[in-house]
Amino acid sequence: MATTRSPLVLLGGLVAVAFVPLFAMWLVIADVGTLVYFFAFALYFIVAHVVLPGWVYLDANGRGSDAPLTWTGITFLLPFVGFVAYYFLGRPDAPYEAGANAGVR
What is the dihedral of CA 57, 83, 52, 33, to 10 degrees? Predict the structure, then answer.
């Protein structure tokens, strides 16, 4: 039975699949520059492909947007461009509503 934590477990597994080979590469090369690259890429990936799309989805849902998944997908595929486009073009003027009835009008 799926739980609310299942997406987080799946995301953690996908991140591990992406970063374990990079970390193994660093262990073989043992270069500090490669380690810096590894951590910089990890930070970019977390911010651009997890935090920004997550914020867009929560904001679009809370403001009652007609297409929260579309904006989230655009922000995931084009991280910073999609975020700016959502912020200036797709963000509804409605105030943000938190809670169980967010986005339901």
Answer: 160
How far apart, in whole angstroms, are the C-alpha atoms of residue 84 and residue 90? Answer: 9
The answer to whether 68 touches 95, Cβ cutoff 8 Å, is no
Which DSSP state fits 100?
T
- Over residues 46-83, the pLDDT tens digits come to 889 888 998 898 888 888 888 888 999 999 999 999 99
Contact 52, 86 (CB under 8 A): no
Model confidence, pTM:
0.65
**Spatial separation of the C-alpha atoms in residues 105 and 100, rounded to whole Å:** 12
* CA proximity to 58, closest of 5, 9, 11, 102: 102
